[in-house]
Amino acid sequence: MRRWLIPFAVAITLLAAQPVAAADLAQGPVKTFKDLGTADCHNPEGIAASPNGTLFTAGLSGKICFVSARTGNIVRSPLAIPKQDDKTPVNLLGELFVPDSTLFVADIGDFSGAKGRVLKVNPWTGSVRTLATGLAAPNAFALDRRGRLFVSDSFAGAIFTIDTDEGGATPWKTDPLLATKGQPPFGANGLAFDRAGRFLYVANTGDDRVLRIAVNGDGSAGAVSVFADGAAINTAMGTTGALDGADGIAFDARGNLWVCANQANEIQVLSRKGALIARFAGTVSDPMDFPASPIFVGRSIFIANLALNHPGTGKISVLETAVRGAPLVPGDAEDDND
Question: What is the strand order of the sheet 291-297 is part of?
Fold first, then answer.
């Protein structure tokens, strides 16, 4: 991974930031919730949740699996996603569920950088509609308060908006900071808007960073800036592995950002000011394996483990927390303390 120089003032700020006790955020260790090392559900990358407590996982099996967030049981038969053509496999990445029973799903295709597509799925009826094709590596989703759907493209170093009615992808922001020459070779990845919708936060996997893009008053993209840099955190705090392989992200109701660090095999927590305030790894008996995407359900955070280097395996991990997740769609309310 690349390492970056930072201004002296930034280093002082990071050194001054005192991590909160892990007990202030979590009430238990990371545990294995459901083993998904099956032919239908292996190597899950994306995870989403419905209001009735169903977890949807999507991954390299090319199928969507249905898991009860209460019991961990498979509650429906997996939904196979149709191929776009005879030669291109289905490899599913990020997901986003919205209350009208729509599940948005990213399919990277054959990883060639030319066969990516965004799908609109009704998980209950099994209907699948293609909204956009020809993307390089569509990965993670977010909704803004206007109801627009955003998707990161990890190979293009760009964020697109997707027309959820007519279909089609429109570039929203392209910037060198959204690309990478690092490893894994994925730039823009996990997405999340802050509670007020003023910034879109973006994980850059290969650069071990979390960026943020200002949202202008008319909804257009403003400047990209570095919110947190793993190398800078390691230098300032004397740590290792900070934001190493930053992947999926999610805000809690206090405004902290939870980051899946897929190379550190941890989920790490950033404060509102970008300080690393907590990090959670699996235990010897319940290790995480390439944690890729998080989703809050109440005060539980569920994590899809892609297990990229272990084909045919994968699982969902869970961490019981002291905080709730923030709404997936931003509003004008301030972050609360619960």
Answer: 31-35, 315-320, 300-305, 291-297
Domain residue limits at 286: 8-320
Handedness of CA 50, 57, 46, 148 (dihedral sign): negative
Q: What is the full DSSP assignment across 228-290?
A: EEHHHHHHHHT-S-TTTTEEEEEEBTTS-EEEEETTTTEEEEE-TTS-EEEEEEB-SSS---S
pLDDT in tens, 267-311: 999 999 999 999 999 999 999 999 999 999 999 999 999 999 999
- To the nearest 10°, report the CA torsion of 124, 304, 140, 242: 160
User: Is 329 part of any domain?
Assistant: no
How many other C-beta atoms lie within 10 A of the C-beta of residue 99? 9
Answer yes or no: is 296 within a domain. Answer: yes
- Nearest CA among 232, 264, 226, 222 for reference residue 246: 264
Half-sphere exposure of 122 (CA within 13 A, CB side): 6
Residue with tokens 């000011």: 273
Is 332 part of a structural domain of the chain? no
Q: For residue 195, give the nearest of 44, 327, 310, 316 by alpha carbon.
A: 327
Average pLDDT, the chain: 92
DSSP reduced 3-state for 31: strand
Q: Which CATH number goes with the domain that contains 142? A: 2.120.10.30
Instruction: Give the Cα separation of 5 and 11 in Å (integer).
Output: 10
Q: Please, which residues have CB within 8 angstroms of residue 124's CB and are 6 or more apart in sequence? A: 101
Helix (H) / strand (E) element for 12: namely helix 8-16
Residue with tokens 């230098």: 235
The number of domains in the chain is: 1
With respect to residue 140, please indicate whether it lies within any of the assigned structural domains.
yes
Decide if pLDDT at 332 tops 50.
Answer: no
Across the beta sheet with 102-107, the strand order is 92-98, 102-107, 116-121, 128-135
Q: Could you give the CA distance from residue 327 to residue 260 in angstroms, rounded to a whole number? A: 18
